[in-house]
Amino acid sequence: MERKPKRPNRKAxxxxxxxxxxxxxxxxxxxxxxxxxxxxxxxxxxxGPSLLxxxxxxxxxxxxxxxxxxxxxxxxxxxxxxGTFRVYESQKALTKAHFLQDPSLETPVFLRFxxxxxxxxxxxxxxxxxGFALKFYTEEGNFDLVGNNIPVFFxxxxxxxxxxxxxxxxxxNNEIPQASTAHDNFWDFIANxxxxxxxxxxxxxxxxxxxxxxxxxxxxxxxxxLVNEAGKAHFVKFHWKxxxxxxxxxxxxxxxxxxxxxxxxxRDLWNIIEAGGEAVWELGIxxxxxxxxxxxxxxxxxxxxxxxxxxxxxxxxGEMRLNRNxxxxxxxxxxxxxxxxxxxPGIDFTDDPLLQTRLFSYTDTQLYRxxxxxxxxxxxxxxxxxxxxxxxxxxxxxxxxxxxxxHKNSLWNNTPYxxxxxxxxxxxxxxxxxxxxxxxxxxSFVNHYSQARLFWNSMSSWERDHIANxxxxxxxxxxxxxxxxxxxxxxxxxxxxxxxxVAKQIxxxxxxxxxxxxxxxSPALSMAHQPESVQWLKVGVLLTEGFDGPETKRVVDRLKSxxxxxxYLSEKQAKVDGTDQVSFIPDASFLTGSPxxxxxxxxxxxxxxxxxxxGQMDYFIREQFIHYKPxxxxxxxxxxxxxxxxxxxxxxxxxQNEDFLQHYLRALGKQRFFARI
Length: 677
Prior knowledge:
The chain is of the alpha+beta class and 677 residues long. 26% of the residues lie in helices and 16% in strands. One of its GO terms (biological process) is hydrogen peroxide catabolic process.
């Protein structure tokens, strides 16, 4: 039988007509103009401010800002809460910002936590940089401190931000993997952008798998200026120090939690605030006088560098308390329009090229994503009155009265009027600008490995082990052997020891590069020494019928008195009766609960201790142990621990004397026992 000729696939032809292959082609703008330098924005001098006339930067960032609808291109998975900020003592010598001068004043705030890489549906415990973005509703207008939980960033110039995010997002040909950097494109970017060397050490540390929103540091990342009434300026970096200490998950735990509870972090914060608790941070500042701008072996405007606390001390100046949940996540958390360009008198910008491009990009993004009048939404409105001649636009909420909508005017006596600087009118700091128009990285930005090595030198032994394992996992997922080799050589510039360990794991040759000669360390960068607080830690109490009622109640009452949260677990969610008429109704069963949701477990003893070795009971104990968490058990359960081979191990405590609760609380405060395996 004669075959009929195939009908032409018109849709395929149409698609092919608009397809293009970028491989081995010259780089141009969308107008076809060849690009000679795609690494730097156009600046007034090597260290000068970026220029608005940079049409290449505007095209690139404007297109990037519109690549996702309607969720954020980055930081899509977010969660927020309200609170207050109060300064401890007046900072009048440094700044005229009113909210930093009056210790009796409580400034309302809204804080949005987020993840950089994942989409809105990503799990919260994946390895990722976390956004730490704060809106202060001050009496002088809104001030937004839009930062991360890591003090440095991947790139030095914001014109490369689209490239970074394109590389970190799922690969475009198959949209895999979601919310993960363990793929070829990301590590190819890192391997070919040496300025990312410092950041790669941070992202492979436990900082990117935090235990809770409450146990993350926050950083403004950029260098800003504080300006006082006399017009004197100081360079400043902002730090948020959590009162609960800095604590993280371990990798196996974070992966499992992604499936068990993808909302782990928001549930933790929501529940604590609903229970009347607070999440607390202190605000610290690092200050450098203008005369000392060039006194360091790094450029203070380089966002891939931090200011070591041993060289520039962090001074604690205030406290923030988050204590109110949102009423509607979309109306508040999703519609909040945060922008590093929102500043108040007394705070100003510097020529940090990453900050300079963010000042354009964030405005452009919010206009596109939320709309022309995003500032009118309740979550974005300042608490102080605001008046101007801006009119109309999509979703206009304000009904402006009268016919005058321009400046200058005589019909309304030239109102709204300009405000005299002496009465609070904003005046940009008069920084002297001098330089030729140029696209070039300043020579002072070129040292990429000394601070990466400083970070490595500062890590404890278990932190180093975790970093090596993280690199081995991530690079082990990279299919390109060439990229793996390049990365080993790059890691080798930080540490030959680290690179050699990782190379062996991923099947490539050891590094051929020479490691940095930096031998200093900064104890402030390590997570090894944290305050031992137990408040709001969660302990799961495992029960079976006939548990020791009086003993269990004594343990539970003491833990609660110290601020520990208690949840009861048993085989079923029906009432469990213990001795002496003590009974509890479980909050979860072994089916609906998980040992990963608790900072520790206490295994109640009783008439039938063998029940604790059956099925899920055994699983709860083992999972707590392999994730280095403290375990408390009644004396009658000790044979089960012996069977598991964990009796006497650090952090495993048996309730057999009067000192048990004291030792157990101390172990809870420590949270992890990394030396026991």
